[in-house]
Design goal:
Pfam families: FtsX, MacB_PCD. The protein has about 800 residues and is an alpha+beta fold. It is built from 26 helices and 23 strands.
């Protein structure tokens, strides 16, 4: 076993196995931890693992089915808060003592004091109010306010609720009371509009059982939402981060596989003499296989085991950083050890095994037909079990697997005739160019596998770096260093000048001001909206059953992109958010009518917009051209940035404009910035693995061609060739091989922009300078070869 380590080819294989073991095991160990962490975040945003929602309280049988599990309940309704002669419409939530199941409620003792976490809601007799409610009522903590027939003591200020999902500008000031006080208020009676939520904490199996049990008992007004089927699961960067990590790790493994495949042929040649001698003395195939393959397999088990152990420790550390409650996955560790075994069996063992079928004479003569068709076919099939091992399905990685197979199968079909054509065209070229290309064209069994490996390694490296950096760039552009952390709602026309002066005095960065008009969509192309809309979609139903917030602007917001048509720029024109337009059946040229506070609003659709709803900026479904909404009653909305340590200055703003609603989103920003920091660390680690794997492929390529290059140089020296010719020939050979690989890798990268964009960027992955990354290899390798002294077999023997 120790003799194997003397071989450069074997050492490269061992390093490839080590890197692949680290990459695969880390991903497998983290897969459950990341999914658990994602479920935790989703459960916090949702309020529970399972939520039974309805417009009335649940039936006794439903309550009995759920109350055996840890649970809580809340009742959400709109009502009026009264203080002396002041009235304020508020969104009130009555919660049981066990609320919240997940996360904490962020509260503060005064309007602008430092927030802290609470693990339960208010006690009976107390009420918690959001800061904007205190601002609007000009009240302070410790005063008394009335809700319905009951007076409450204002105990604390709500900063952030764990499951707060409402939009910024559609949200009334919030209030929270104990569920025990709900009956005493007398605000809910027959016909009252409210929303009851029964929230349950349950593991996966219990959750599925409860969901099935509730399915047959649901009333028309009820629905069950879980951490699996909620729309929240598709939001945020965590899903994109994990998907990109899976793709990148698969790319690392494929690069390691290319290095193993290339070095396997070199390793097989090193063992030809021993194999021939064993056959000559009468050893059978089992004995030869045990001696040649068994020794390598046993020796490679050491780096595989070392990689798995290192990755297990790394995975456990990252899981701790993620605050994951998932137990350590020993099954994932065993699967991580299986990955290197599949790699070696698929990319190295078939080539080593082929020499067992050759005669001793062929082996002693140095047969060059080792590692041709059969090993190539097995290598093509090996990524399939690797993808299954990493993801459990083909859905995520099918573009990459399809691309890999297309490259490997298409090379012999498409490139070999092209190589022969170029060879014929170079017959009148200078001698070094003819010699360099002839070396490649006459050795197809060496050139094609090497070219395939280089193309795959260069294309996957550039694609992964491009996608990873674009992902981080998108997130960071959404959350710049001074992203708006306060939203201002309910500004009036007469307040705008004074508000802008306040911002100037406090050096605050302000975003555009948008007018907001509340109106309901009533007709499309002159037909009643109920008759015009035939699609039964939640988005359409939500648009039809409530007033929408409309705005007007001739400038496209940074978080929007016109996907069809053009921006509205003349009064009577409007653009529509593309997904809502699809659910309503709207298209460019249609006419929409809204019923507002004054006269009806009619406009023609001039364009559709794609909206980034996760950006911290005001966004709208309908955006009219300036002048269309001038006759309607309107307020204004905007956002601005103010450092957290200057939050006390906001009291002056509230005092000057008591009617405004001031929304603090610092807690949300802090959470998302933490996610981006974790994503940057993950991208750096994966990028380091990718670079290491790419260097492995390059080393394997150089090792594969080194012996033949020495023999060619020795022959040319014997024929009288001088050193400059040898250098030019070697440099041109390196350039033809690596430059051709770089050209094809760049083409493949360009073609792969669509499938990568579909998986990671909703169909958009722009061109980037990362597509030029493959060209660094021919540049560096050609220059290196050009300045190194050519080595011949004689020089190698002397060394």
């Amino acid at each position: 076993m120790t003799k194997a380590w003397r071989s450069n080819a074997f050492r490269l294989q061992a390093l490839a196995i080590f890197i692949a073991a680290i990459a695969m095991t880390t991903m497998l160990v983290l897969r459950n931890s990341v999914d658990d962490r994602f479920n935790q975040r989703t459960a916090v945003a949702l309020g529970g693992d399972l939520v039974l929602e309805g417009t009335r309280f649940p039936e006794p049988a439903q309550r009995n089915a759920l109350e055996a599990m840890p649970h809580t309940e809340s009742v959400n309704f709109a009502s009026v808060l009264i203080h002396e002669e002041q009235f304020l419409l508020a969104s009130v939530r009555a919660v049981s003592q066990s609320f919240p199941l997940y996360g904490q409620i962020q509260v503060s003792d005064d309007r602008f004091s430092s927030p802290y976490d609470e693990t339960s809601g208010p006690q009976p007799g107390n009420i918690w109010l959001a800061g904007q409610a205190l601002d609007r009522l000009k009240m302070q903590v410790g005063q008394t306010i009335t809700l319905g027939e009951k007076a409450f003591l204002i105990e604390r200020v709500i900063v952030q609720e764990p499951d707060q999902q409402s939009g910024f500008y559609s949200m009334n000031p919030r209030a929270m009371i104990s569920l025990q006080d709900l009956d005493d208020t007398g605000v809910l009676g027959a016909g009252s509009r409210y929303r009851h939520n029964l929230l349950v904490a349950a593991e996966e199996q219990e959750r599925e059982r409860l969901e099935q049990a509730l399915a047959a008992t649901l009333r028309p007004d009820q629905e069950v939402e879980t951490v699996v089927n909620t729309e929240l699961r598709e939001r945020g960067p965590i899903q994109q981060l994990f998907l990109w990590s899976q793709l990148a790790i698969m790319l690392v493994v494929l690069l390691c596989a290319a290095a193993i495949f290339l070095t396997a042929r070199h390793r097989a040649r090193q063992q030809q003499t021993l194999c021939a001698v064993m056959k000559t003395v009468g050893a059978n195939q089992q004995q030869i296989a045990k001696r040649l393959l068994g020794a390598d397999a046993l020796a490679l088990f050491i780096p595989a085991l070392a990689g798995v152990l290192l990755a297990s420790m790394l995975g456990a550390f990252i899981a701790t950083r993620l605050d994951s409650n998932a137990p350590f996955q020993w099954q994932a560790v065993l699967q991580g050890l299986t990955g290197p075994v599949i790699l070696w069996l698929g990319f190295a063992a078939p080539t080593l095994w082929q020499q067992l079928s050759l005669s001793p004479l062929s082996l002693l003569r140095g047969a060059d037909d080792i590692g041709s068709r059969l090993p190539m076919l097995i290598a093509l099939a090996t990524p399939i079990p690797l993808a299954l091992l990493l993801t459990g399905s083909f859905t995520t990685l099918w573009p990459l697997l399809l691309l890999t197979c297309a490259i490997a199968i298409g090379l012999p079909v498409l490139l070999w005739p092209l190589i022969m054509l170029i060879d014929s065209l170079l017959r009148s070229a200078p001698l070094p160019a003819r010699l360099a290309f002839r070396r490649l064209s006459r050795r197809k069994t060496t050139t094609l596998p090497l070219l395939a490996a280089l193309i795959i390694s260069l294309s996957v490296l550039s694609m992964s770096m491009h996608a990873g950096r674009q992902l981080l760039s998108d997130w960071q552009s959404t959350l710049p260093e001074q992203a708006p952390n306060y939203f201002v709602i309910n500004l009036f026309d007469e307040d705008l000048e004074g508000f802008e002066q306040w911002l100037d005095q406090h050096n605050s960065d302000v975003q555009p001001l948008y007018p907001v008009v509340r109106a309901r969509l009533t007709s499309i192309n002159g037909e009643s909206v109920r008759d015009a809309v035939t699609k039964e979609e939640d988005r359409a139903e939500r648009a039809l059953n409530r007033d929408l917030s409309l705005t007007e602007s001739n400038t496209l917001p940074d978080s929007n992109l016109v996907s069809e048509g053009r921006m509205a720029n003349q009064p009577g024109e409007v653009t529509v958010e593309s997904k809502l337009a699809d659910s309503l059946g709207l298209k460019v040229g249609d006419e929409v009518t809204f019923t507002g506070s004054a006269m009806p609003i009619t406009a023609s659709v001039t364009g559709l917009r794609e909206v980034d709803w996760e950006s911290f900026a005001p966004n709208f479904y309908f955006m009219f051209a300036e002048g269309t909404l001038s006759s309607q009653d309107r307020t204004w909305i905007t956002s601005f940035y103010l450092p957290e340590d200057r939050a006390a200055e906001l009291s002056q703003l509230v005092g000057q404009f008591p009617q405004v609603s001031l929304l603090d989103v610092n807690a949300i920003l802090s959470s998302l910035q933490d996610i981006i920091a974790q994503a940057s660390q993950a991208a750096f680690m994966v990028g380091a693995l990718l670079m290491a794997a790419a260097l492995l492929v390059l080393s394997a390529a150089i090792l594969t061609t080194a012996d033949q290059l020495r023999r060619d140089n020795s022959l040319l020296t014997t024929l009288g060739a001088e050193t400059p010719i040898l250098r030019k020939t070697a440099a041109l050979q390196a350039f033809f091989m690596t430059g051709g690989a770089a050209l094809l890798a760049t083409l493949i990268h360009s073609l792969a922009l669509w499938p990568l964009g579909e998986r990671l960027f909703d169909g958009r992955l722009p061109f980037s300078l990362w597509q030029a990354l493959p060209w660094l290899l021919p540049l560096l390798l050609t220059l290196t070869v050009a300045f190194l002294p050519p080595m011949t077999s004689r020089e190698q023997a002397r060394q």
